[in-house]
User: Fold this.
Amino acid sequence: MSGPLEQADGRLIGASVPRPDAQRLAAGCGRYLDDLSPHGVQHVVFYRSPFARARIHAIDVTQAAAMPGVSAVLTGADIATVCAPWTTRLALVTTHVSASQTPLAIDEAYWQGEAVVAVVAATRAQAEDALEAIEIDWEEVDPVVDPEAALAPGAPTCHPGIATNLALESHASRGDPGVAFAGAHRVVARRFKFGRQTGVPLEPRGILASFDRRTGELDIQQSHQVPFQMQEIFAAQLDLPLEKVRVACPDVGGAFGIKLHAYADEIAVAAIAVLLGRPVKFQADRLESFVSDVHARDASVDAQLAVDADGRILGLDVDLLFCFGAVSVYPRSSTGEALQAFSLSGAAYQVPAFRGRVRGAFVNKVPTGAYRAVGQPIANAVIEQLMDDAAAAIGMDPVALRRLNHLPSRPDDGSMLLTPGGIPLGPLSLDACLDQVLERMDYPGLRAAQADAAADAAASGVYRGIGLCTFVELTGVGASIYGPNAVRVAGKESVRLSLAPSGRIVCRTSATEQGQGTRTGLTQIVAQALEVPMELVAVAGGDTGRDPHGGGAWASRGIALAGEAALLAAADLRANILAVAAGLTGKEAATLRLAAGAVVDAGNAQLFTLQEIARFAHYDTIPIKLAAIPEMTVERSYTPIGKPYFAANGIQAAHVEVDVGTGMVKVLDMWVVEDCGRVINPLLTDEQIRGGVVQGIGAALFEECIYSESGQMSNASLADYLIPMAGEMPQIHVGHVSTPERETSLGAKGVGEAGTVGAIGAIWCAVNDALRPLAQTVWRQPFTPAHVLDVLHHPEARMAPVALRPFDGDGSAVEN
Amino acid sequence: MNDLLETGVEEAGISFVLNGRPVRHVVPVRRNLVDFLRHDLGLTAAHVGCEVGVCGACNVRVDGAVVRGCLMLAVQVDGLAVDTIEGMNDSGEIAGLQRAFVACNALQCGYCTPGMLMTACELLRQNACPSRGEIRDAISGNYCRCTGYQSIVDAVALAAQGGQP
Assistant:
């Protein structure tokens, strides 16, 4: 046997194989949640709070309950008879105290969009008709909307269940930042504002729940990323044995982290199924998705960077304030974005002195949670803009400044590097990625063209800018986050492989698929490891009733973890298949191997096809001269042991045009060079990156959940909340550097979030590079035409000088 | 089919040609076309994404023109011809596009794909050899949240080179 890394290379691993699933989806044969309609299914719709905060004095449902087709109208008190409340807690973050939650609001609602009453009817239209007949006696309460005001001394809380709106506070420091900043050649400081976003999977959330009173079994179909987590939650809240709850995910029409959480309204649907004993379905419509799906980002950051005369970083100081919602999303909490943005601050660079503070505030808005690349775009955008500011301040090219300060690449056996925030990182390839991206984009050529066009720019009002964003990305997250925090979310991924009686290979996995191509990647890995054609391998997942236990999909871990589990399982199954062949022939198993779907001997003579092995092993075991017949089903799990995460890295570059007459930003080109370790399928990987980049461009230029001062989301429709369309997106050029993950035989790191991680930062730098001749900068994302015109023409809209915390007595004593 | 009869809601009989075959139905007059196709007739390829006519996931073809299924009422197709992706798949009309979409990985979750194929087919019927810019313009009424659109442009261009929509 060759070494493990060689083992993972080959004809299928690394090949641009089209997805087998794609044919079915292109034929219109996708099977999404709303396509499922079992006999007798009833439709659930929710009356949602129209106010950011309001007390409920009385709910009158008598008229609604008498409407045609209506079978039940249920309030929070009705649901509470079968469903326990829950509280989001993290054992290690003891300061994070969220108010207790119930499936439907009782007594008071805490954000616009919180579900208050459920109507169950024969059709969705009838249920919606009945919503109109519900009478609620509301008393509006002044909401807490602004995060800074929420944290001011004496501020009223946004929820009576909490003592303070301070949802999170954490500090870290290393070195002596006070000395570093005092002795710096230049200090650049800036305030950043990151708008509130949401994920907008094109298929809204949905759930179909059936409870069989004869068996006590709850059967859930859910458009979701993590069925095992949901199985735990439904069982716990409804007091059912875990084994009596099954959660399965049909085709999922996009997720991006949004479908990672336990939503109160979806728990309500499961409770309604138990109460009514018949199948009930909730399919969110787009309008309610905007005020009930988790939101994300929503942060302001004050940051400063100290450099010496040569451009070497001396110190970094960051102060992040995140705006959560009224409660912390269950069960993983709303803290992930804040903590990840904090711990990855300056991650790609050598930062000898660091001081950081991160806080989160509860306010009366939609709860925040995971959205693609959780926190990482914020960490990267901040440091990259500071790097450009520092380069300009000392008259250095931004590329040279980055190269000077990059974390070094390390040999495979080198020790881990620590980010300023204390995250250990494995081998990186920052300079190699930088070299490749500069060549691909012709950086000197673009800079020369920019200089040549400078004179014309003043006349035409169209300025071009170039931006770079180095990034370090955490992928393959294992058991280090949720287990120690007493959150029942599996860190492992599992694969169960069988040689079926048909002779085909059946693979069930805990890793779920929302279009990433995980199943295709697993198919390639299994087919290669067992030397069978891909057509003979069937991969499926997303069903707690059929799959081995594991996580699902988040943090770019599907291929990185489940892929390794598949490789391990395939090695075991191969050994068992060869043992059967040895038992049939009397030859030594060590002299046999698999080739082209068959067992061959040392002389390459075919002994048995896999169909023949399957027939013997399942139906005709007498000829197998062994004391015990080897199992034709094996199951293996994988979770990283040596490190909490894998660390991918890369660089994005943006070339933009800013029209100062209209404020429009046009992205001319984007380049990404990233290192996700071993690439299993370049075709799928590249478009996965491009999709992430487009979500990042959307964040940079268009997407924001806009709230009024009274806590109303004022652009809550897909006509008003802008997401990118094809006509305004550039060509996105993707390249790879490959540093295989040394923790695994497969060597793959995750890649699902890489595109989103660096796009905001690259475009931010590019826009401000374009505006540099005008001595103005954009400072709040998204960089809409209105914001660009504001900073150009309205002095009061420009970034105010940043009031930074003094370096003495700031509470930054916590060393990492 | 239980959705068809909604007590207290006005209904109307309609006849039209669905994927080449004549059909008659009674529908609530307020029922939109995509809900009617999906929930009453079981033709689930057209999806509902935004319900305000901007995302294109619900595209279907009515008398040869691609329309938003969420903005049209079922009663409006009385006397007309309606084509869905199911029909266009079965007839082979979009086989070239489908092959190109698979080859280029021009879909991830697949939710937007039927609407995207509908639009791409209409484009290639009007312009057999579109430029990449023309393709981008044509599909700009169809949201895709998963791909970066680039592979979809690649696929439509590839199908056009193949000379078949």
